[in-house]
Structure formats: C-alpha cells, structure tokens
Amino acid sequence: MRHANHSPPRKGGGGTAGVASFIRRCALIDLVAASFFSALVLFLLLAFTPLGDPLAASGRRYLGRQSASFARQREKVIAAIELGDEVVIESCPAEEVDKMPCEDPRRNSLFDRYMNFYRERHCPAPGEALLCLVPPPKGYRVRIPWPESLHKIWHDNMPYNKIAERKGHQGWMTEEGPYFIFPGGGTMFPDGAEQYIEKLGQYIPIKKGILRTALDMGCGVASFGGFLLKENLLTLSFAPRDSHKSQIQFALERGIPAFVAMLGTRRLPFPAYAFDLIHCSRCLIPFTAYNGSYIVEVDRLLRPGGYLVISGPPVKWPKQESEWDHLQAAALALCYKLLVVDGNTAIWKKPSIASCLKENKLGIGYCRDSNDPSEAWYFKLNACVNKNLAKGEFAVGEIAKWPDRLVKPSPRLSLTERGDSFEADTQLWARRVEYYKKSLGIKLESPSVRNVMDMNANLGGFAAALSHNDVWVMNVVPVLFPLTLDVIYDRGLTGVYHDWCEAFSTYPRTYDLLHVSGISSLVADSSSNLNRCHLVDLMVEMDRILRPKGTAVIRDSVEVIDKVAQIARAIRWTTDLHQVEPESPGDERILVITKNFVS
C-alpha cells in the first residue's frame, strides 16, 4: 500500500521550491472550487430538471421499451377470460417484490420537481404495466399477530435495514435475530412515544373520548399512531415512498393504520374537517411556503376546535428563527390559539366557530363558494380558506364523544339520509357481519386479521359493525360515487378517496382482509354500458395488496360472481361460493377467497 511521504519541512525554505509549492496549493484550491461548482450545477440539474436526470432517462427507455409488450400480454389475458377460457396470470419478476404502480420511481422520475410533484401519484394506464402477480420476498412468513406485531415483525418479510441502521439510535427500530424490534421511539421522542403522548396529554384531552381521529404527517414507522391506539385515538399515518424505502410498509406490517402519500401540489385524499388532531414530528413540511398552501391544507383537514401539534423544525430551532416567525404568523392569521411551546413542540387549537381569517402577508384569502372543501381527488392545492358552512354539533367538544359518535348520524348528512337510511345501513351491516362470522366462517375475531379494507364503504356501516373487534378498517369511498367520506370521519372512523381503475397507494402484502360489495360498480362507467377498466385489472390489484393467506369477501350478482370466480382461478386464489343472508336480494352471491403463496 502506498503512503503519503511526510517529509520534514526545510528550514529557510525560499526560492524556487517555495514558489512551486505556492502554485501547487493554488492549483489545488482551483480544483476544489471547480469540483464544488460542478457538483452544484449537477445537483441543480438533478433536483429541478427531469431532462438532466439519468434516472428519468432510464425511466423513459424502460417504459418505452416495455409498454407495447405489456399491452399485448394484458389483451391476451382479457381475451381468454372473455371467451371463458382458463388462463393463469404469471408472477412478476423478483425485482418487482415491492411493486407500487402509481409510485414507481422509474415513472415518477419523468415529472417536474417543483413542490415535489414527481413524488406524488403518477399511474400507468391499463396496459402500460405488466399484468402479473407480485411475489413475496424470499423467506416471507405469515405476519406476527396483533398486538405483538406492534413491537416486532419478521425481518424477512421486508428485509430492508436502512432505517434500523440510520435511526436505531433514536429508538425507531433495531434488528435482532429474525426480527425487527420497535422500541416505540422517534426522532423527536427517542425515549418512547408513550412518554411523548403523556406530555401532549397535559395540553390536549387525549384520554377523554373527545378526540378520536388523528393524522400523523411524515410518520416514520408510525410508533406515535400505534401507541395512540391504546387511548382509542385512531391515527392514520402517512409518508411518501422515499429514500427510507419502506417506512409505511413497516407501519402496516406492525398493524398500524398507514397510507402512502405526498403533500406536494394536490390536496390529500381526505374530506374537509376530517381530523380532530393533526401531528407533525420532524415531518419537515415547509408549512408557509408557496403562499401558505400547506398550512392552508392542514386547516382544511382539521376539524373546528381541533388541535395542531408541530414538534421539531422550525419550532424554536437553531437557524430557523425566520421560518418559526412565519409559522406563528400564519397560525395567527387563521385565528389559531397557541396553547403552549414546550421545548421544540408547539400546540395550537383551531377556533370552534365559523372560519376565521385575519389580514396576512402570505396572501391567504377566502375561497370562492364554488370551491368544495371536501373534493380532494387530484385536486390542486389552493392558498385560500373555505368558509365553514357546516351546521349542528360539528366541532371538537360539540360532536358526540367516542364511542357514541359511531352510531349518531353525522350533522353533514342531508335530512333524509340522517334519518331512516343511516339507521337502516348501520343495522344492515351489523346483520351481515354477524352472518359472515357465523355462517361463512370468516374469522374476523382472529389475531390473523388486523388490517381490513372496505373497498366500497358508503356510510362506513361495515367498519362500524367491526368496532368491537381488534381490527382497524380503511374505508375507501370511490370518487365517482357520492362523497360520503366526511360522514365516515364524523363517525370516528378513517378512510380515503380512491378510483379503483388505478392502483391503491400502499405497498404489496399490507391487508389481511378485503371486503367489497358491488365489485362490478367499481370499474363501471355510470354514464354508459361500458367499463372504465377491466375486472382483471382490479383483481390483480387486490392480489397485490392482500397478504398471502389473506381473505377477500366479494358480493355481487350471480353473473358478476361467476366472472369473478373465473378470474380468481387465473390469479390462483382458493374460492368458496355462498348464498347471501335471507333478507338480501336473491340474485346476489358471496364469494370468499383465500390468497395462496405464489412465488
């Protein structure tokens, strides 16, 4: 091995040697400076122009090369199914083990970096992606049951060590033998979420049933939301698909409600005034940037009388005094009351009255009356505040406490819906869930069932019927249906808007049970007799997000169920056909499927 020659300096050292040494030092400085500016230019190209992004170039080549063959393969499968032929859909290549069609870095690298647009959802059209079944990673096993999974999961189910290596000293997670262990810490609460929650409880009514729905922004592995479940506070945690690769995947493997999302250029897929508590622990969202668009989005989502907690930058943070001043000014403009600044944690309370807005330097004004605050599917962010027009017991402290709010009609229901239809829907799903348990043998009370999704949630009756089980339910309201998600949140449940002709924003193998009533309606075009996409696309997506040995319960007409059963065989699911409950329409059937291990 060569070593530097550390010769002792010469005494008196002048003359030609000294000049040469000086020139060499200057050249070295010039070289360093040139390297720095070259790196800066390269960074700017990578960060702000997709044209300069080699990943973008490789993404274009990959997509262009594959799209035609993918389309032909999909058309061949669909043609065989339409003819009634038996066909088997192949497994995806092993490198697609974490396939997320709408959050694919190869596709997303093609889009603009401004406001992190490229990290939002960008979905392929049907036929642009390979129609295949995502395989589990090598060594995958049935997940550890809840509540043990809150504290540990199988390493091989997602063998990604980056977070453990980078964040282990902050109590996020560590690797121990065949497990990842979750001590319950976070960057701003390395001593544990429970101590942190106890501190927040000095200023927020966490334990009294007053608060029920919460949103944790930039959540890490979601320990904050996981430990709030002990207080009956249902927290939906979100983070983008980022360099940590799998933080939301870890959260869902633990059995904690979580969702992949990016607060960039669009509204988050939730209705207005959905959350009683919004929390950011070092989420690094620039709340007052872009004319205050992000703090305005927080205001849209926060229920009147609700609480906003920001822990970490810029709250009392070194060298971020200006950002902290701007955040305080924005909160003041929205009439939020600053309850406390405890170290680097600030807590505000939103006014319970109609929307309040003061004069401000950010340029935030009131939205036009035509701007529906609950419209949130691919809806561009606005730097304006909607007037709170909701009537009745709506604000935190006025809406019924949990669990009473579960069965009390939402003040956002129309007068007709608030009466008979709400009560009837609640009773209907209570009977159906009981039938599922007793007559269909669906083990909803088993530790093997934790993460549940209702793909066509309507008023949330299915989830309400499961409220006594140790599960949580992602209520999905299709965007072409009546937007009832605000009613679901008023009941103290959680969910998102979605279009089932696109992939859902989650990792593969993240749900134990999928439930869908009227599966054909999710792909249909209500204005014509045509479908917007094919049932094959939807069921392959269901297979992607369902865990091996997971269950799906599908209800529809006899004709549709026959088609679903044929596609299920192509996906290599085990199926079991059942009659519906005695009071349900006689032309309906229920298909119960089990997903098998497919390598």
UniProtKB/TrEMBL annotation:
It comes from the Eukaryota. One of its GO terms (molecular function) is S-adenosylmethionine-dependent methyltransferase activity. The keyword Metal-binding does not apply. InterPro entries: Put_SAM_MeTrfase, SAM-dependent_MTases_sf. Keywords: Glycoprotein, Membrane, Methyltransferase, Signal-anchor, Transferase, Transmembrane, Transmembrane helix. Its EC number is 2.1.1.-. Its main location: membrane. PANTHER family: PECTIN METHYLTRANSFERASE QUA3-RELATED, SAM-DEPENDENT METHYLTRANSFERASE. This is Methyltransferase.
